[in-house]
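Supplementary notes for students who missed Thursday's class. We covered one full example, reproduced here. Read the sequence, then the structure, then the short commentary at the end.
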Amino acid sequence: MRLHLLAAVSALTLALTACVSSGGLRPDGTSIDPTSLKSGHSLAGVKLSAAAWPSADWWHGLGDPQLDALMREALHDNPGLGMADARARAAQAEAGRADAARGPSVTANAGVSGARLPSTVLPGGGRFELAKYGYVSFDWGLDLWGGKRAAWQAALGTARVAQIEARAARIELSGNVARAYAELGYAFRQRDLSEAELDRAKTSRELTRQRVAAGIDNRIQLRQSDVEVDTATQQLAQATRAIDAARSSLAVLLGKGPDRGLDITRPQLLKPGALAVPTDLPVDLLGHRADLVAARWRVEASRQDIKAAKAEFMPNVSIGALAGVIALGGGNPLSLPARFYQAGPSISLPLFDGGRLRAQLSYQDAQYDIAVAQYNQTLVGALNQVADDVSALQSLHEQIAAQRRAQDAAADAWHMAQQRYRAGIGNYLESLSVRRQLLVAEQAMASLQARQVDLSVQLIEALGGGFQPQAGTLAPAPSPTPTRS
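Structure (token representation):
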């Protein structure tokens, strides 16, 4: 008896030493500490305020009721949001399936089948017989090493990523609607200025034609005025096309046909918000940007996938049971002699698989490294995007101030030219030339103001677009040291 026991122990020891191993495999990804990303000098001189985080309905601050209505319509009807929601539901179903795999399963089956077995195989055979049977089976794979739990947590993390991405899609949509609406307002302003320039160019050409007919000017001046008219005509057509393009873009964002865009009236002049950034920006940004929260959940899901892959190297213990009845021919399957049953545990251990498990673990390690790299890239990009938008808005503030002075000077020159013409000192053609300088200045100002609104929306998006993590959706920050295998 002792010899049998010793042989069994020796065989088990040999099997354990010969089984596949995860030794030497580990991920290499290391997450960036957000406090190591310095932005104090880049954001110097900018107002810091804890209230600078955008609200969920930040577009109300732009001051246009029509934009508010378009936002509601887009957030309700845009088909892209439906796809994002469907992906979130699919990921949640996958998490539910992974959770269900952790528990036992019970299966019942019953049936009737007929067969003719040859007498050379079974004594008494040679005739057709009916077999009536029914059974219930029970199976439960014990999760001794937490592999199934880790797989469920990984699926749950992936589901949270999908949920956050669905919310991110709404934030992106609101930003796109606001920017397209601002572009529509700018296109209308450009059309006004193009119409004014075309009217000025036509008047100038008519005066030049009269002067050529009177022998005061030559045909060179007339051809130059023709160039101005044709150029203004082209700019007017371009501005009109820009209005159509902006309306079409808004119709797409609203999830409607092109005629819906035609119903959008001219926007009011949007008011960009005051330039300010939140305090503790690098750290707090982690919880206010959906892409960063999703990136953290991807890292956490990959970490759990590694745990699940490691558990595959360990012995697997399961409990199974089977009970039922069976009867041949005219026998009664419900009688006591027709019963059968079996029950017992089983254990399995991978001894040789050609490297499949090591390859799978190596793959999960690489996926973890990818997730960490994506998180680092998103974090660095997010902070630099905020700093760049702030710098651009500061520059625009200076440009607008300088352009306003230039526009005021052009307006003064136009006013003086008008006075000279009325006083009989200058001619109207000279006044129209000065008028062109004013229109050019107004076009430049309109472009800068439109750019200011666009950048303000971009900064709002860079600061999260009003995203607030819900309870249980904020993933733990990635560990600065990689998980070891």
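Commentary. The CA atoms of residues 48 and 277 lie 5 Å apart. The mean pLDDT is 86. If anything here is unclear, bring it to office hours.
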